[in-house]
What we know:
It is globular and about 50 Å long. The protein has helices spanning 48-55, 78-85, 95-98, 105-117, 121-134, 151-163, 181-198, 209-215, 233-238, 243-250; strands at 6-15, 22-32, 37-41, 63-68, 71-72, 88-91, 169-173, 201-206, 218-223, 226-232. It contains 10 helices and 10 strands. 38% of the residues lie in helices and 24% in strands. The strands form 2 sheets. A 6-stranded mixed sheet has the order 6-7-8-3-9-10, with helices on both faces.
Amino acid sequence: MSAPLLAVSGLVKAFGAGSRRVVALDGVDLEINAGETLALVGPSGSGKTTLARLILRLIEPDGGRIVFAGTDLLSCRGEALRRMRARFQMVFQDPLSALNPLAAVQRLLADPLRIHGGKTTATIDADVASLLELVRLSPELAGRHPHELSGGQRQRVNIARALASGPELLVLDEPVSALDISVRAQILNLLRDIQRSRGLAYLFISHDMAVVRAVADRVAVMDHGRIVEQGSVEAVFTQPAHDQTRALIAATPRLRRAG
């Protein structure tokens, strides 16, 4: 069996000091295989976003290891880290706050193409058009600014920007929770189709077990900074072993799995 794309082991992170010290992660172990979707679920404050920020090297852990594609991510610095970051990207919950309001879509997509992809001015326009087509947006939207787009269109731009560097892993932090119900299924289906065509792995962060059941291959449940349960979607939903898992499932209406 091939090695996992991402392997996290013994990850620890605390904030504050003394009596105000709060342990956000307490020895987290996690693996994601190439091409699969691992859902990371749990209540607010369970450590989901802290774990995502550590994986993306936005903050540093107090202990543990993060290995991506066989490389010790925590040992990477400078140019080596920049090259690695092209291989994993994040899609944020709120597409409006994640996008520069002063930049048109053309610039939002062109900048990562130049920074991570080494693209030249001669090919940028065609590459931007290809990214927009990939997320099922008209190239005519390239001249618009975020406030001129709908919520679903903004999230598609957010996804296109994350894909500009040609990543192998997308960290999706509640990617549909800020969208209307009618738009959520469209975005989930888009993510599924992109994953199939590009062989991407997803770390899908959510508190919504209905969405998780629709999109994930495996589930990891967090509670108080620890992974308290892991398993296939079928196993976790039909035979939940932890009280937190059962509470999350009980609080969520059923949703059909995306086909």
